[in-house]
Design a protein that fits this description.
The complex is a heterodimer of chains A (about 250) and B (about 100).
Chain A lengths: L1 H5 L4 H56 L1 E14 L14 E11 L2 H18 L6 E9 L9 E7 L5 E6 L9 E8 L6 E20 L4 E33 L6
Helix pairs in contact in A: 2-3
Chain B lengths: L1 H5 L6 H47 L4 E8 L2 E9 L7 E5 L4
Antiparallel strand pairs in B: 1-2, 2-3
Classes of the chains: A alpha+beta (about 250), B alpha+beta (about 100).
Chain lengths: ~250, ~100
């Protein structure tokens, strides 16, 4: 072994192989570094596009929701007979008829696109059929720039109409969701009561003294008289609008 | 001196020539790799400059073009801001403020 190490035979070949090895290592390191540089720039561009997509969608959602106004009109009609001793055949006499009609108005195209979903959610909260209403809508590329990614917007409304929008990109993207919060503008409604009178027919059996040609007799007769209802129509209009409150930005997930 | 010249110990011509060939190949390979790395670095610099320009265009709301995005099932008119190349960084705003 020692002899082999000390021997000068074949040293040039070994030296040449060493040079080859060093050249290969240096070359590979330099090319890898350069390649990593390009990949870094490309990754940074993809991350930036995700950020721009999310921030643009957030701006669109904030502007859209700001221009939506939810209105719930509740009409309650109460019929009460002026003379409660009468026999009343009409079933309306003590019942109040309720009719709640939700509607929504939208000031812009973006608002119009979200209006139907917001109406469904707010109506659920108004009717107390839901304590927290949720809905999802997507913002997908249309014409002009099909390279944009689809943003999913999840809307959550609590019982006081506070609204939170969570904007997220598809799986595999770097940015975590953006959170937008909206404060409801829902003043307490003032009921408007209009009272009118409505005629109705009240029938009753009674006795009537009738002359039959020979003598007077009592006969049972069905008498129909006109009475009046007090009709109280109460219209309560609840308006809910939203103002943008805060935006919490996501962070880059590495 | 004479003994050394007459000695048959040492390396053969073939060995030396093979060694020279290996060294030549190594130098050529290193040169090629360095040139490739240089080209890649230039490309990275160009991409970086292009990225910065695209970012400025998108953030400064410059170079507006009309288009649409689909919100739910409805089409909403928007204005795109991009440098103009395919795949360039793009931002958008809804027409009429959202």
């Amino acid at each position: 072994m020692r002899n082999k190490l000390r021997s000068n035979k074949g040293a040039s070949l070994l030296a040449a192989l060493l040079v080859f090895f060093i050249c290969a290592m240096v070359g590979a390191a330099v090319v890898t570094a350069a390649s990593a540089g390009i990949q870094h720039v490309q990754a940074r561009k993809a991350e930036q596009q995700e950020y721009l997509t999310l921030s643009s969608a957030a701006e669109l959602v904030a502007g859209g929701i700001k221009n939506v106004k939810f209105t719930e009109t509740q009409i309650s009609v109460r019929y009460e007979c002026q003379d409660t001793t009468d026999r009343i055949t009409d079933t309306r006499h003590t019942d109040a008829d309720y009719d709640a009609v939700p509607s929504v108005s939208a000031g812009t195209d973006a608002a119009g696109a979200m209006a139907a979903l917001l109406q469904t959610m707010a109506a659920g909260i108004y009717d107390k059929t839901e304590t927290i209403a949720e809905g999802t809508i997507t913002i997908a590329p249309g014409t002009g720039d099909p390279a944009l990614q689809t943003v999913t917007v999840k809307l959550t409304m609590d019982s006081a109409y506070h609204l939170t929008a969570t904007l997220s990109l598809p799986d595999g993207c770097h940015y975590s969701p953006f959170y937008l919060t909206f404060t409801p503008d829902a003043p307490a409604p003032t009921p408007n009561v209009v009272t009118t009178s409505e005629p109705h027919s009240v029938g009753s059996w009674g006795w009537q003294l009738i002359w039959n040609g020979k003598n007077w007799t009592y006969s049972r007769v069905w008498t129909v008289t006109t009475k009046y209802y007090d009709v109280a129509t109460t219209t309560t209009v609840t308006n809910v609008g939203w103002t943008f409150s805060s935006l919490t930005k996501g962070t880059v997930v590495t | 001196m004479r003994r050394k010249l007459r000695s048959k110990k040492g390396e053969s011509l073939v060995e030396v020539m093979v060694a020279i060939l290996i060294v030549a190949l190594s130098v050529t390979m290193l040169y090629t790799l360095l040139m490739s790395a240089s080209t890649m670095n230039k490309r990275a610099r160009t991409l970086s400059e292009q990225y910065q320009q695209e970012l400025n265009t998108a953030e400064e709301r410059a170079n507006p073009t009309s288009g649409t995005v689909t919100v739910g099932t409805e089409s909403v008119d928007v204005t795109f801001y991009a440098a103009g190349d395919d795949g360039a960084l793009t931002a958008y705003t809804a027409e009429g403020g959202g």
